[in-house]
Automatic annotation (TrEMBL):
Domain of life, per lineage: Eukaryota
Native source organism of the sequence: Rhizophagus irregularis
UniProt-recorded name of the protein: F-box domain-containing protein
Organism phylogeny: Eukaryota, Fungi, Fungi incertae sedis, Mucoromycota, Glomeromycotina
Length: 483
């Protein structure tokens, strides 16, 4: 009984580390019990931490492990087709890793397999690569007793050599999350659960004739993400979402052109994400819309000032309920003034603040008294004023700073910025230890004399001087991934 209690406690603790792969990986090395619990969490979504450019060893390890776990039947099929992959694993796998997976991304697994074969310089044809992928998928589908999420990519999944429909037939009844293209095959749709909670659709020129039925048949759909939607081609599609209008709590629109009233019918939205390159199709819908439950708003603006007045009007109506606000790709001081005036309950804020806006920044910090985290996008600007005001005017709840550096910055500038921040923060009495996350795009590494290690040394020096830092992390992100 005490052992089971310990296991249950460890499981709850490790679940909090789900997004921290480095710490969770360290838990594998503590003892057998910790290893057995942590490995199940790490393998729940094998693609979650995959970034071949940043950590190339991870996809290699995953594919080698999956191949090592293949049943004898699959090994014989691969051997008969002349496929021999050298696996740097001497002992049999400690666990049945495939059975721990609850999320499958066909595209990601295929991508990891491709990189693994390239690493081994294997001259395997596309057909044979598809055969390896099919055997891996077959094993996963057979081992996973309850698949929760499937990311189904048409380009791969419609290959003649990968019959995903047949190998997934008995394993889709418990799906709660589905990501697919609009031309997903009708036979596949017939196997999918009617209790999806999250649905992501990337629209292509064609739409499956049963996709509308799939949406209409859902009983508990809470999250909908639409990409590349064109309403003048698919007006009938919107009507299929009417049934979900009062159930939906999160809506994401990316590169969608929706010229007819649409967003306002989802009265109970708690989160709204608009990543539109052409705002004219979206923001006019929001100017008089009221969402009493809306807590999170994320917006990308690419154009000029034409959408600003509409957004400010929306904040005046809905800003009091917002706890998180993010705006990307665009700066306008009127929006920052509106945030200070209409959004007093913000806890997380992502925006740009220019040097001439010192008083506006002070106004935000004074009026948004519950502010905990600020995400700031930096470029050429000198951040001296930013850190000084942050140290002197942020309220007692503030503890988190996320800095994103894009083109025009350097590691040297980041080093100087952080040192300035620590100098201003030294006399600050804070309720919580600091959390600092720095996201750096690829181009920032150019023309720098300092390195990430220099920044880590700087952080440690100021921790010794008494600044409490609970979390410090430097993330490298490809420039194309910036929202």
């Amino acid at each position: 009984m005490p052992c089971q209690l310990l296991a249950d406690c460890l499981k709850d603790i490790f679940e909090y580390l789900y997004d921290d792969k480095n710490t969770l990986y360290s838990c594998l090395l503590v003892n057998h019990l910790c290893c057995e619990i942590a490995v199940r969490i790490l393998w729940r979504d094998i693609c979650k931490f995959y970034d071949y450019n940043d950590t190339p060893h991870i996809p290699l390890s995953i594919i080698y492990t999956l191949i090592a776990c293949l049943p004898k039947e699959s090994e014989e099929i691969l051997h008969k087709n002349g496929i021999n992959i050298t696996i740097p694993i001497q002992k049999p796998p400690l666990f049945n890793y495939a059975s721990f997976c609850k999320v499958i991304s066909i595209y990601r697994i295929n991508d990891m397999l491709k990189h693994t074969l390239e690493k081994q310089q294997s001259n395997i044809s596309k057909d044979l690569q598809n055969l390896i992928l099919q055997e891996i998928l077959k094993m996963l589908m057979n081992q996973i007793s309850s698949l929760k999420a499937l990311k189904y990519n048409v380009y791969i999944s419609h290959s003649e050599d990968i019959d995903v429909v047949s190998i997934a037939k008995i394993h889709l009844a418990n799906l709660v999350e589905l990501k697919c293209d609009s031309d997903i095959c009708s036979e596949f749709i017939s196997q999918i659960s009617h209790n999806l909670q999250s649905l992501t659709i990337d629209f292509k020129p064609n739409i499956s004739n049963r996709l509308l039925d799939l949406i209409f048949s859902q009983n508990n759909l809470k999250i909908v993400n639409l990409r590349n939607f064109q309403d003048y081609n698919y007006r009938i599609f919107i009507s299929s979402l009417t049934k979900q209008s009062l159930i939906l709590t999160k809506l994401t629109l990316k590169n969608c052109k929706i010229s007819i009233p649409f967003i306002a019918m989802f009265k109970n939205l708690q989160e709204l994400i608009l990543n539109q390159k052409n705002g004219e199709y979206t923001f006019y819908q929001l100017q008089d819309a009221h969402f009493s439950q809306l807590k999170i708003l994320k917006i990308s603006i690419y154009d000029d000032d034409s959408d600003v007045d509409l957004l400010i009007n929306f904040l005046e109506i809905n800003g009091k309920n917002l706890t998180e606000f993010y705006i990307y790709h665009y700066h306008n001081e009127s929006i920052n003034i509106a945030l200070a005036d209409f959004c007093p309950n913000l806890k997380i804020l992502c925006t740009q603040i220019k040097e001439r806006e010192e008083e506006i920044f002070k106004l935000i910090l004074n009026n948004c008294k519950y502010l905990e985290i600020i995400e700031y996008h930096s470029g050429f600007d000198d951040l001296f004023y930013f850190f000084e005001i942050l140290a002197n005017h942020s309220r007692k709840y503030f503890y988190g700073l996320i800095l994103e550096y894009f083109a025009g910055s350097s590691i040297d500038a980041i080093y100087d910025d952080l040192e300035e921040f620590f100098i201003n923060w030294q006399d600050r009495t804070s309720q919580r230890p600091l959390s600092l996350i720095i996201s750096i795009t690829d181009c920032v590494y150019n023309y720098s004399t300092k390195s990430k290690n220099d920044i880590k040394i700087l952080v440690k020096e100021y921790m010794k001087l008494g600044i409490k830092i609970q979390k410090f992390e430097i993330k490298k992100i490809p420039f194309y991934k910036v929202m």
